[in-house]
Automatic annotation (TrEMBL):
GO terms assigned for molecular function: carbohydrate binding; peptide-N4-(N-acetyl-beta-glucosaminyl)asparagine amidase activity
GO biological process: carbohydrate metabolic process; glycoprotein catabolic process
GO-annotated cellular components: cytosol; nucleus
Stretches assigned to the Glycosyl hydrolase family domain: 287-778
Signal peptide: 1-20
The UniProt record lists the keyword tRNA processing: no
Name under which the protein is recorded: CAZyme family GH92
Keywords on record: Signal
Record PANTHER family: FAMILY PROTEIN, PUTATIVE (AFU_ORTHOLOGUE AFUA_1G10790)-RELATED, PEPTIDE N-GLYCANASE PNGASE -RELATED
Record keyword Signal present: yes
Residues of the Glycosyl hydrolase family 92 N-terminal domain: 34-281
Native species: Penicillium bovifimosum
Length: 818
């Protein structure tokens, strides 16, 4: 890696940026002022709002006990149970990590260590809602007890600062609990407290939050205070003793996790602020201590915080938008979305005890089903060197565990939601030209294995039903599959997703000159058509929606099954189940109505099946206007932009505006669903840039940006790509209350590097070559981007439905059946 890192630092420190600035002077300003980590920390956003470095392993925050505390702290009035150092962000599943929380007392009742309360359920406390402060690299909160807690982090180490209310009789006690957010501790956990120094070391085994297996995490906690150490010891359940310093504790008593851990107490004194430095490691307590000692040697809060601020500032450097005529809340929405794309995945390089390798190791891909759509594509533009490491890690994981992950957290396999989504990630990154150290032949072999071999346990890797896929060319409902095991549901969404997976594999095969493979996978990528039932209608509350032709489940014998096309849609309140339950439906987390648009590679064939662009547009409008789609979940992302394929790019622009900022606003409750490791953040960022990816293809769909201009420096080439609007001010006058909200007007014409540009999409070289796109706006939908030759590429041909030409290609027989 050295040559590449060297190249990068050169780009950032000298030549690259200077040249870029010469070409496109861009306003520079401190963007951290526009990052609000609390967005999505309430109302099911499940965002981790605490202190972290980009892709950092240590993530410090106050943990609460309220409903959506998956990310540790939920800003919705729960009680604080402790302060812990490991978290995931935005995930569904159980609350993730939250291991080894600390909890502070100014003093114990009766000045007796047994006068403090140890069990989590009993010690938890309210916090002062307006005391909560969150900034990149910093989180602060005041407990109802008057204790102010500030925290910051290095890569594997957290630093907590506990300030107690002034009172000369204080004798602060900090406890460390051998627990996690989900009370998932397994077998024997240990802690040793050094009586001389107060250092606490130990470990415990825990369960992952959306996967199988378990993981062991080690810790090393040191404490510093102007006050002298008074005593230390351990606690079990509600009792503590300074006479005992070592504890090995079982999993639970009668099914309830047994509280246990260590404590340290300080002498009364004038200033008894306590700093707690907690190093964590998956390798050993020694490594946890080594991280802590090297990363935060002097317990210096301000320096550690400043380092974090510098790292975030550096990471945010490639992108700037114009601040002309735009409300600060819009900037906050945008930059905070970008920030969240770099909380997860987490860089556990050097922290993987499962195999020996010199490759990078990233974890908390939680899940690729979420992040392939826009998060990793965004990072591919914005932070390619990190994406390169992520891809190398995915390939290395396959090398050692046999399969590419689909979801991965805490060193464990997570559950697969549908297709083999790592295929989409690898293909997208491959097409966008990232190379540095990536073994693409190994990458291709890994995705091909997903396509060809069925794993024994396809609930956590690969694909199920591959025999049917190859022989019948669809995934049947109630498949007969004795080769591998997983939940036998989602036959429609799996058919659609496997089709797409095969398409992206075909694209990689083309790039690698594997022509026969490319043809084979392209053929298979048309299998989605085999579940299209031409005469299927859709009724809602007894009334015909007026549309005919939907996907339907199909049995092994070729007979159609039935699933109401609106079941599991946003408007279905009948209790339909569409997750991973064995009673679930044939579409994952959404309806047939929404999945009918999931043919990202073959949109023209889909448009033909749905009777041409006009009928397609009416149908896509119906999906959105009737609230059938649920913008709070990832399958909805692309539907916002698919008007482009019907020659109606202006409608995509309108649609973006109906969702942002109304459904994605810069407030704690501002996200419509789980952020899913930053997937929602990337949706906001890319939609507001006016460039949305169709991932797995070299395609960005163009819409009106929310800013007068957007500049992105390619960290690979140092060149600056710019989107500018020529006549922004005309269309972005302040709204009735005087706020400039942006994103108004429709594209009438465009130039690319000064030459007229009519295509409604653009390729990745826009970013790497630093091109300049100038958009001329108008009040109404124009003709720009509406012609056949302006449309994004599609596997199937454009039909004869109104783009002025082309061969009408009707679906007649089972695709792929000879
Ligand atoms: C928080 O704790 C207080 C007592 O300190 C209790 O009254 C309240 O119900 C708790 N809130 C929640 C959400 O558990
Ligand atoms: C936990 O410790 C006990 C006591 O030393 C031992 O008998 C038991 O086998 C240990 N359990 C595991 C799973 O290691
Ligand atoms: C990940 O961590 C390793 C080891 O600390 C480091 O060399 C690498 O640069 C990190 N990668 C990123 C993207 O931060
Ligand atoms: C594929 O073949 C073309 C034309 O022969 C060649 O230019 C290209 O380098 C080859 N690519 C790979 C990955 O082998
Ligand atoms: C095909 O299988 C389904 C499910 O077992 C059954 O309901 C249907 O009657 C079968 N069709 C024929 C033609 O045998
Ligand atoms: C869709 O939901 C929005 C609010 O989320 C509501 O204003 C609108 O009336 C709903 N439309 C329909 C057709 O139910
Ligand atoms: C401008 O319009 C008013 C009235 O419709 C809204 O209440 C504001 O929220 C809006 N401003 C922004 C920034 O969206």
């Amino acid at each position: 890696m050295p040559p590449y890192n060297l190249l990068l630092s050169l780009l950032f420190t000298s030549a690259g940026l200077v040249n870029a600035a010469d070409r496109h002077p861009q306003e520079d300003y401190d963007v951290l002022q526009y990052i609000n980590p609390l967005i999505g920390s309430a109302n099911g956003g499940n965002v981790f709002p605490g202190a972290s470095l980009p892709y950092g392993m240590a993530k410090a925050v106050a943990d609460t006990d309220s409903g959506s505390n998956q990310g540790g702290f939920a800003h919705e009035g729960g009680n604080v149970t402790g302060f812990s150092s490991m978290h995931d962000s935005g995930t569904g599943g159980s609350p993730s990590l939250g291991n080894f929380p600390l909890f502070p007392y100014a003093k114990c009742a009766g000045d007796d260590v047994n006068g403090c309360v140890y069990p989590k359920n009993q010690r938890k406390l309210r916090y002062k809602p307006d005391s909560v402060q969150a900034h990149p690299g910093y989180f602060g909160i005041e407990l109802a007890s008057g204790v102010q807690v500030d925290m910051t982090t290095a890569h594997h180490t957290s630093l907590f600062r506990f300030k107690f209310p002034e009172d000369a009789s204080n004798s602060p006690l900090i406890l460390l609990d051998l627990t996690d957010l989900s009370n998932s501790r397994q077998d024997n956990a240990t802690i040793s407290v050094d009586a001389e120094t107060g250092r606490m070391t130990g470990d415990a085994r825990f369960a992952p939050s959306f996967g199988s297996g378990s993981y062991v995490l080690h810790f090393c906690a040191d404490f510093q205070s102007p006050a002298a150490l008074r005593d230390s010891g351990i606690f079990v359940n509600s009792r503590a003793s300074a006479d005992v310093h070592d504890l090995k504790i079982s999993r639970s008593i009668n099914g309830y996790p047994l509280p246990g851990g260590g404590f340290i107490r300080f002498q009364p004194g004038e200033d008894n602020t306590v700093l707690a430095r907690v190093g964590v490691s998956f390798m050993s307590t020694q490594q946890a201590c080594a991280h802590a000692e090297s990363e935060i040697p002097k317990f210096d809060f301000d320096t550690t915080h400043q380092t974090a601020v510098d790292k975030w500032t550096e990471k945010m450097r490639p992108i700037r938008v114009s601040r002309n005529n735009i409300d600060a809340s819009i900037l906050t929405n945008f930059y905070s979305g970008i920030y969240r794309t770099m909380i997860n995945p987490q860089n556990y390089t050097g922290e993987n005890p499962l195999w020996q390798s010199s490759e990078p190791y990233f974890d908390s891909f939680y899940c690729l089903w979420d992040s392939f759509r826009s998060q990793i594509p965004f990072l591919t533009i914005f932070d390619p060197s990190s994406v390169t490491q992520m891809v190398r890690s995915l390939i290395d994981t396959q090398r050692h565990l046999g399969w590419l992950p689909d979801c991965r957290m805490s060193l464990c396999k997570g559950y697969t939601q549908g297709g083999s989504n790592a295929d989409n990630v690898l293909a997208d990154v491959y097409l966008k030209g990232l190379k540095d150290g990536i073994d693409w032949e190994a990458g291709y072999a890994a995705v091909q294995k997903d396509a060809e071999e069925e794993p024994y346990d396809w609930s956590s890797e690969g694909r199920g039903g591959l025999r049917s896929w190859k022989d019948l060319h669809y995934i049947p409902v109630e498949d007969f599959d004795y080769e591998g095991f997983g939940t036998m549901t989602r036959s429609i969404s799996r058919t659609l997703e496997y089709s797409y997976n095969d398409f992206v594999i075909a694209q990689m095969a083309r790039g690698l000159n594997k022509t026969a493979d490319a043809e084979r996978y392209e053929r298979r990528s048309r299998y989605w058509q085999n579940l299209f039932k031409k005469d299927q209608t859709s009724f809602w509350q007894g009334k015909d929606t007026g549309f005919t032709g939907f996907f339907q489940p199909k049995y092994l014998n070729g007979t159609w099954g039935y699933q109401d096309p609106l079941a599991c849609s946003n408007i279905d309140n009948s209790g339909s189940v569409c997750s991973l339950q064995n009673t679930a439906g044939e579409t994952f987390e959404s309806s047939i109505w929404e999945y009918q648009f999931f043919v990202p590679h073959d949109m023209q064939s889909l448009i033909n099946l749905l009777n041409g662009p006009e009928a397609f547009t009416t149908r896509l409008d119906y999906l959105h206007n009737q609230n059938i789609t649920y913008i709070g979940n990832e399958p909805a992302f692309l539907t916002v932009f698919q008007y482009h394929y019907a020659g109606r790019p202006a409608k995509s622009t309108s649609r973006v505006r109906t969702y942002i900022p109304d459904f994605f606003s810069p407030t704690p409750a501002g996200l419509p669903g789980n952020d899913d490791s930053g997937a929602m953040g990337s949706f906001v960022a890319m939609a507001m840039m006016g460039l949305f990816p169709n991932p797995g293809q070299d395609v960005y769909l163009l819409t009106v940006p929310f800013f007068e201009s957007v500049s992105i420096v390619s960290p690979l080439t140092g060149k600056t790509a710019t989107v500018k609007t020529a006549n922004w001010a005309e269309f972005n006058t302040p709204n009735v209350t005087g706020d400039a909200v942006g994103g108004n007007g429709f594209i009438q014409s465009a130039t690319l590097d000064g030459v007229e540009y009519t295509k409604n999409w653009i390729g990745h070289d826009f970013f790497t070559e630093g091109r300049e796109l100038v958009l001329v706006l108008g009040k109404e939908e124009g003709v720009w981007g509406t012609k056949k030759e302006d449309l994004p590429p599609s596997l199937g041909e454009i039909g004869g439905f109104g783009f002025g030409g082309g061969n009408e290609r009707r679906w007649e027989s089972m695709v792929g059946m000879s």
